Amino acid sequence: MSTFALQEIYPQAKITGLDLSPYFLAVARNSHKCNATINWVHAAAESTGLADASFDLISIFLVCHELPQSATKEIFVEMKRLLRPGGYLTIMDMNPNSEVYKKMPPYILTLLKSTEPYLDEYFTLDIK
């Protein structure tokens, strides 16, 4: 979904969408929004096989909270390798400092963590 949003905002850009899931890549390729100009790549984000310094913008959308810290750190190293000088990395994910989590009843937070096994690791990750 985020790849399609970027395509709408930057219609002249050369866009690459990357995912580890063949299923979700097939869904994307067959989407009614799919434009043939998107280059869909099946790869792990921490080892993409893409060329050094080949992107002006990299967007990570709701990925980091799904992974152990070690994998997230490997992805950041790979994204740095892929970015051109002066390029941008954008991250959209859960905000560990959100008041929502601080006010959440403990049983709800426990239920959330039961579906997000790396949430505690993510909440202690110093992304800055």
The SSE string, one letter per element, is HEHEEHEHHH
The number of helical elements comes to 6
Residue fraction in strands:
15-25%
The amount of helix comes to 25-40%
CA distance, first residue to last residue = 25 Å
The assigned structural class equals alpha/beta
Main β-sheet: number of strands, strand sense, barrel status? 2 strands, parallel
Determine the mean pLDDT: 92
Rg: 16 Å
Total beta strands? 4
Quickly name the level 1 CATH class: Alpha Beta
How many independent structural domains? 1
What is the CATH architecture descriptor? 3-Layer(aba) Sandwich
Low-confidence stretches: none
Fill in the CATH topology. Rossmann fold
Q: Determine the CATH superfamily.
A: Vaccinia Virus protein VP39
Note the overall shape. globular
Q: Identify the strand order in the major beta sheet.
A: 1-2
Structure description:
This protein has 128 residues and is of the alpha/beta class. It has one domain: Rossmann fold (3-Layer(aba) Sandwich). 39% of the residues lie in helices and 20% in strands. The chain contains 6 helices and 4 strands; from the N terminus they run αβαββαβααα. The strands form 2 sheets. A two-stranded parallel ribbon has the order 1-2. β3, α3 and β4 form a beta-alpha-beta unit. The model has no long low-confidence stretch (mean pLDDT 92).
Give a nutshell description of this structure:
This protein has helices spanning 2-9, 22-29, 69-82, 99-103, 106-115, 119-123, and strands spanning 16-19, 39-42, 55-61, 83-92.
